[in-house]
Amino acid sequence: MRFTRAAALATAAALTFGMTACGGNSESGDSGSTGGEKKSFAAGSTMEKLNTAGSIKVGTKFDQPGFGLKGLSGKPEGFDVSVAKIIVNELGIPEDKIEYVETPSKVREDVIVNGTVDFVVATYTINDKRKERIAFAGPYYEAGQNILVKADDAAITGPDAFKAGDKKVCSVTGSTPAENIKTYVKDVASQLVLFDTYDKCVTALDGGQVNAVTTDNVILLGYIAKNEGKYKLAGENFTKEPYGIGVKLDDKDFRTFINDTLEKAYADGSWKKAWDDTAGKFGAELGAAPAVNRY
Ligand code: GLU
């Protein structure tokens, strides 16, 4: 490596070079380095601590095509993962220093509160109940709840189909769709089946234990894309699900940093590129960049 870490500190241009050059380059003469880019953040801030550590833990899904799906590479891939990488890059941490922690819906607040992860980006709807325990940066996308059925199902055309009391629907514990669907289901105990992941719901649909799976349209579109001709959406979206990035409740500076990073990514095209390379391939619309909510 021709540039030392000290040289990389000298100018903004050198900083940029330092990050590019160190990412995955094993020729560095600085053998003790984690390969990160030294940035200047407020002393004691989460950003400074993470930058100094040179590594980060990110909570995301491992079973959601287009958003967070762990494939053959052994690392999750998708829009959420790409958004995480944009934030991690801005922290001066190389992508290979991200430890991904599988974060099913029901544990998201817990892993933020107990510090298992530094932030969560996991199709995570911003809502007031969750805001009692954690804080959200974003939104960075707005999804909407929908219903997945087998391609030849003509009986279920929307959530009202569950009012008759004979159809079973699957969702995930601790998710907003699991709560929302209760207002349509005649008998929750017999009709609503809950698992910890959407994968298990889709398996239950395949096996005929349930007639439908309900969650956000974009998650369902991922399953449709991965299984051509097998499933379809039953009708229109019937809720709004703005996706946020979960951080510790009192960490306003980190939240502000992530919101600034999102706005930068909206402006420089990296947010749109992240979408186009991932979930955008599955037929959902990105729409205009949502205004971040600096509450
Ligand atoms: N966006 C919804 C939620 O945060 C559903 C997706 C999910 O379970 O991750 O609960």
UniProtKB/TrEMBL annotation:
Keywords: Signal, Transport. The keyword Transport applies. Residues 1-21 form the signal peptide. InterPro entries: Bact_solute-bind_prot3 (IPR051455), Solute-binding_3/MltF_N (IPR001638). Pfam families: SBP_bac_3. It comes from the Bacteria. Residues 55-282 form the Solute-binding protein family 3/N-terminal domain. The keyword Lipoprotein does not apply. CDD domains: PBP2_GluB. Belongs to the bacterial solute-binding protein 3 family. This is Glutamate-binding protein. It comes from Actinoplanes couchii.
